[in-house]
Amino acid sequence: MLEMANVYHRCHRAKPITNEDPPPIEITGTNVTGRKFMVLNDDCLRKILNMVNRVDLSSLLEISKFYNYIRLKAIIVELFSRKYNVCHLKNDVKTYDEAQRLLSNCGPLISHISFQRLDYTNVDGEHRIFKAMIQNCSGTLKSLQVRRYTFEANNAKPVFPNLRKLDLYACRSKNNASHLFARCNSLIELSVSYDNSYAAPNDDHIFRHTFPELELFTGGLNSENFKKFIARHQKLKAINLLSDCEPVAILPLITDNCIDLKKLTIPSDGDNNSVEYEIAVKNISRLMCLEDVTIIGTLRINTLIPQLSQLPLLKELRLEGENLCSTTLSALSQLKMLEKLEIYALYGYIDFNPIADLCSLRKLSIYKRGN
User: Residue 11 CB: number of other CB atoms within 10 A?
Assistant: First the structure.
């Protein structure tokens, strides 16, 4: 209160109120000087409102709209857009009612929303929040992260047409709700991952759609819908496959369709002694634009290295697996063009001498476990 009073005395303009000024407003608890709140000039109002949290600021915006305080509304909109345009609902609000009011008052001013359950016993509450997001943020939201939510078909039409980034974790769809993201034609980045304790990996509704501007994908699934999804998205620049998919089935689709790919993450294959696996891995040499590769798991690196050596633009390589050994490092000596190399989970004694032959290497990171 004292700080607000000091701000008032520093910023108060002495000129009288004219007929052009809006009616003065007193805000309970801040009017410590006994004077009218709207007598303050714009700079003073900004300093005071900058102390207010996002929930209270949204309430003030509601008041300014109701009483048509145009100057106060303009300052709040400016401040909220700059300071609170990123919203993590679980951290920024305490109840579903607060979240709904925040979205109703300031939804169009929010560019990023992270949404997950506030109360695991209140399913109706989370549906109200998602409905409020659709009603107030659908046309303006740029980034959306959703955790452990079940999409319902009672949302009648596709939403979020201007979304550029979508991150779904352990989400499900019911009653043919797959259409919700069907018109996200501006989407550039998509991440879809699963948690078997909540969402079954066969819930692949998102992969039924085509996103014409998609460049970065993280996820993966052993399903026909996902295979068709990869084949349709030929503009992809980065693909990070997770452990829910098998490289044997997906790599041929990537090498046949995503020829402009620059970044690729490959998980371990369950049966990496198969002939199909060797064929799939060898096709990586067709991705001539590839610059960054990450290999996760016990993938047979000796099968893959000769193919990577044929990629003229490859600059970065990460190896993450429990069975990496000196033989792996010997194979890496073929990659003369590497500039950055990261190796994780090495065990026992390792001979690093072969890496000395990588004449272009600028950065080397080694994370070793055991003695």
Answer: 16
